[in-house]
Design brief:
The complex is a heterodimer of chains A (763) and B (167). Among the domains of chain A are: 3-164, PH-domain like; 172-336 and 453-496, ABC transporter type 1, transmembrane domain (ABC transporter transmembrane region fold), CATH 1.20.1560; 503-593 and 707-763, P-loop containing nucleotide triphosphate hydrolases (Rossmann fold, 3-Layer(aba) Sandwich), CATH 3.40.50.300. Chain A is 57% helix and 14% strand. Chain A is built from 24 helices and 19 strands. In chain A, the strands form 5 sheets. Chain A has a 6-stranded mixed sheet with strand order 13-16-17-10-18-19, sandwiched between helices. In chain A, helix 14 (395-447) packs antiparallel against helix 15. The longest helix of chain A is centred in the middle third of the chain and has 54 residues, at 229-282. Chain B folds into 2 domains: 10-87; 92-165, no CATH class. Chain B contains 2 helices and 12 strands. The longest helix of chain B is centred in the middle third of the chain and has 14 residues, at 75-88. Chain B has 167 residues and is mostly beta strands. Helices cover 13% and strands 38% of the residues of chain B. In chain B, the strands form 3 sheets. Chain B has a 6-stranded mixed sheet. Chain B has a 3-stranded antiparallel sheet with strand order 1-2-3. In chain B, strands 4-5-6 form a 3-stranded antiparallel sheet. Classes of the chains: A alpha+beta (763), B mainly beta (167). Chains A and B meet through strand 5, strand 6, helix 4, helix 12 and helix 15 of A and helix 1, strand 8 and strand 9 of B.
Amino acid sequence: MNSSSSSPDRNREIVRRYTGQPATMPAEIRRHIETAWGGGPVQLYALADIDPALKLTEEWVAVGPDSLALYRSKNDGSNPAVRIFALADIADAKETPGLSCTRVTLSNRPGEPALAEFRYSQRQRRAMGALLFLLRQRIEGGIPGPHEPDRLYAEGVAKPIREAQASVAANRAAIAWRLLGYLKPYRTQVILGMVAATVMTVVGLVPPYLTGYIIDAVIRPFQDGELSQESALQVAFVTIGGLAAVFLTREAMTWVRLRKMAVLGEHVARDLRNDLYDHLHKLSVTYFSSKQTGSIISRVSSDTDRIWDFIAFGVVEVSLSLLMLIGLGCVLIFLDWQLGLLMTLPVPFLLYMIYRNGRGMQRMFLRAWRKWSNLTDVLSDTIPGIRVVKAFNQESYEKRRFGERNATVTDEFFRIHHRWTAFWPFLLLFVHAMTVAVWFFALPRIVGSEPTLTAGTFVSFLLYLGMFFQPIEVFGQMSRMLNRSISSAHRIFEVLDTEPDLTDKADPVSLERVRGDVVFDNVLFAYDPVSPVLKGISFAVKPGEMVGLVGPSGSGKTTIINLIARFYDPTGGRILVDGHDLREVDSGRYRQQIGMVLQDPYLFHGSILDNIRYGMQDASVEKAVGAARAANAHDFICKLAHGYDTIVGERGHTLSGGERQRISIARAILHDPRILILDEATSSVDTETERKIQEALDRLVSGRTVFAIAHRLSTLTRASRLFVVKEGLLVEQGTHSELLEKPDGVYRKLHDMQRELHEMYAV
Amino acid sequence: MTSSHTPVPAAHAGSAPFRLRRDKDGTVWFCRDGAETRVNVHLCFPWTQPERFFSLRDEDKNELALVESPDGLDAESRAILEAMTAESRFVFPITAIESADPDFELRVWKVRTRGGPRQFQTKLDDWPRPLPDGSLLLRDIAGDLYRVEQPEQLDVKSRRILWAFMD
């Protein structure tokens, strides 16, 4: 089971939107096939999208209860051809893989002409893999067919896209709208902030008007002798007072706006971080293994930070700039419609030029980004591999490689600088040309025999003209910031929209104290339909038993313990613990009683005491020390300068692998698990450390059900039984000595091989 | 299926003479010293030495022979080898690019290939790989490969889109 299985609609949408191929087999084709093979349902299908001439085509391959069908939609418009093959006639389905084209040959008997051939691209690999897996099972007389062909097909085709981008991208407006939904709890602050911003913008339009008014109503009449000094000063002081009030109001509103929106941005960023982190803990290990750690961390940190930009400045600046532009246009046309139109009509052209420039700059940045990544590739190659560089005396080569790429990157940045340094003066020149045009048309009207424009209005115009450019510039600058914020929001919503693989049923069984009776009943498991990992495993383990899991790498051992810990649910069969199907139990309560000691133990940043008490924060110090003693860790801990208070983990004190392992064993001992899982717990330590760990493990395992994986078979001699797993099957089980008695047994071979290696190494 | 054939032991891999034989069902057999094994071909240098160095391997991927140059093979074997490699080295040849636009985490390419129009996605920071012959190789997120054989021969719009991805 995986996340996609619970979101078939999303998978279909992804297939439709991103591949251009049908999201399901068309109903007409399905009917045609089912009629052709006699009525049974299509159980699984896939698309063979390459024809024998290596052209793109659409050929459906379907498997039913007894038949396989090939349905080709012919390109020449004639009737489509359907070919039916009885499954009983198909002896082999051989795949010949290529770089982008895999050929499948269906044959009856070796040497006879093939029954049919079809080809598919990598895009169809998963869906086709599932179909061929089913087909081969049928050929071997195996499992019955699944009954969700649409889901499996869409899931297979959508998977690589979904792994790169978990959700179907909505349009930017929808994402911005959803983001704004996070403002709902803070309505009052939003309203205050927006009102303040609006007042700030509107009053910003007043000073140029007052300037014009002073000239026309005070200065000029006074100079012309139409106004007494006393009256002029009176009007002037009132106007100055008005101007002061305007500035005061404006800055007060600026303060309210900045404060409200900045704090609001932090609220929203905090809420998103909390939602995101809470949701991450609901997701299963599958999600984390399919995503890079850095990508997940950046969503919680830098992406939420960019949202602050969006809320604090983006929303307000863009809406205010729009308001300012409209307001300016209206005021100017109101003052003088001819000059007003002269200034407002070129604005769309200016905005278009900014847009075009932005597109061109995007291409340049893309090219520079690519070259930049070439440069950082050298760094990420050579810094971690510096010992190899030095050992092969390649410093000169690496310096030259870096120098060349550095020069190329610099050239690209030169190109970018040439462009923007040319564009903005050009744009300003255009704006200045508008200013000149205003002068050109305005002055004759002022100094004409019958003036139609006052000096005050003209000055107001010039001042408004200065303000005109600011919102246009904001549009140019904000578009990049808004794009980045919306992309960040998309990355955050993508995680929030990922549905958890595993969810407890509504009324789960709470296992208060697990006895440790574990049963695997014909368990099947596959991470994807192409490669089943467990192919029907059955066993029963009694409470207190220690079971060793052995087998070659990739045989399915780790999958078994992951299923016992319920990191995944089986895709077939069931796992019973104390008689309860694991899918029915409260997984939180159950996992509290599971302990794991892994090959590479993980210590969190914090003190050693914190690490031992992880999951049992209330445990007493005495109990923690007792657990450390039992884990053979107390001795080395006390030798550290800060003892149990030593900070370990990221950027903390460095401990050896064996020391970290013993701390993790102490953690497990304190946890007192009913089922204990040991995964290669002693694989990477020296002999003396292994002895100490083994002693600690002996204390830990007693009285619990234990599943232990170890490649070094000698470490499993204490196991009550050994399960030998190979290619997803439980091929042998018994005690160490029982298994050694099987001369051709897998365990015997592994054991002999290890003994020979040991002897060779010893020699 | 090798049940009716004596398989060539992988341990015999080397320069001993062999020949290739194709069955009616299309299966290709590697024949040496009276033994036969089903064989697949793997290209060792698909981009830098596409006509040389073919690794012939059995179904368990054990190498049966390394063909440095097909010139040394008999005519029938050479023809079989060429037919085998034609499909295995197939990648989608791009003849025009209609768009390559970012879609959040992905870059969506809409292209025309010799086999027909196709839409695919790459990760935003996955760049086309320049090959020694001047062509460009793109790998989409599903693993399919696309090749622009002569980027400078594309139409103006395609070249304009590709400009950001070329040196």
